[in-house]
Amino acid sequence: REMITKSTDFINKRPSKAHWTLLFQAIKHRNLEMVKVLVEGGAIFNLLPSDGWNAFHVCAQYKCSLELLK
């Protein structure tokens, strides 16, 4: 948690253009606590990887509750 909240560069970094951010991974795995930590730390919801998806697309694809995105 401490590492995440110290650097927005770390939060929004992708291994390559095709890979998802930490926020997208947390949404995919329905990890509400991690989503909250990432958002509080400055995660960007509409950062688009090469597939053009944003956090709402990921949530819909993996049938997550919109509670994750509130």
Task: Please provide a written account of the structure.
The structure is a single chain. This protein has 70 residues and is mostly helical. Helix content is 46%, strand content 0%. The protein contains 5 helices and no strands. α3 runs antiparallel to α4 and α3 runs parallel beside α5. The two termini are 20 Å apart. 20% of the residues are buried. The model has no long low-confidence stretch (mean pLDDT 78).
Notable traits:
70 residues, mainly alpha, globular
Layout: helices, strands, pairs:
Elements: H1 2-6, H2 8-11, H3 22-28, H4 32-40, H5 55-61
Quaternary structure classification: single chain
Please give the count of helices. 5
Radius of gyration: 11 Å
Order of helices and strands: HHHHH
Mean pLDDT: 78
Low-pLDDT regions: none
* Shape category: globular
Count every beta strand, where a strand is a DSSP E run of 2 or more residues. 0
Describe the biggest sheet?
none
SS-based class: mainly alpha
Strand content: under 5%
Taking the alpha carbons of the first and last residues, their distance comes to 20 Å
Helix content: 40-55%
